[in-house]
Amino acid sequence: MTLQHLCPNFTYASVISRPANEPASWTGATGYVQDLWQQGAIDEAWSFHPTPADTHVFLCDAPAMIDSAVEMLRQEGFKEHTKKEAGQIHVERYW
Predict the structure, then answer these.
(1) How many domains does the chain have?
(2) Which residue, 41, 50, 40, 45, is CA-closest to 77?
(3) Range of the domain at 58
(4) What is the DSSP string of 44-86?
(5) CATH of the domain at 27
(6) Would you tell me how many other CB atoms lie within 10 Å of the CB of residue 57?
(7) Residue 89: strand, helix, or coil
(8) 29-49: per-residue pLDDT in tens?
(9) Contacts 24+ apart (CB under 8 A), 78-82
(10) How far is 60 from 25, CA to CA, in rounded Å?
(11) Residues 6 or more apart from 3 whose CB is under 8 A from it?
């Protein structure tokens, strides 16, 4: 059972930027998550436009992508969650 089945308010959207580099064929979303967000693909997939009042965003990727996505989300009123201040953006930077 997946988290989406256990938590009806949870939605997971996986996006990869280089499907040709994957060991198995990929049929999911491709590109950069911030581009998909700005193009309305997330709104369409979820049937609503996510806002800080109703959405927490979890990002996991290389620092450059995280920084770009966080900046885009900040422009829509989201705040990055820190130990000192609660926010709606949660990140894991790796590379």
Answers:
(1) 1
(2) 50
(3) 3-93
(4) HHHTS---TTT--EEEEE-HHHHHHHHHHHHTTT--B--SSS-
(5) 3.40.50.80
(6) 21
(7) strand
(8) 888 888 999 999 889 988 899
(9) 78/52, 79/52
(10) 21
(11) 10, 12
- Select from 62, 64, 60 the least CA-distant residue to 89: 60
**Are 87 and 79 a contacting pair, CB within 8 Å?**
yes
- Whole-model pTM: value is 0.81
Q: Are 34 and 69 in contact (CB under 8 A)?
A: yes
Sign of the CA dihedral running 88, 35, 92, 70: negative
For residue 66 the two structure tokens come to 């995280």
Tokens of 35: 């581009």
CA dist., res. 10 & res. 2, Å (int): 10
CA distances from 22 to 16, 17, 49, 75 (A): 9, 10, 30, 32
Spell out, as residue ranges, where the chain has pLDDT lower than 50: none
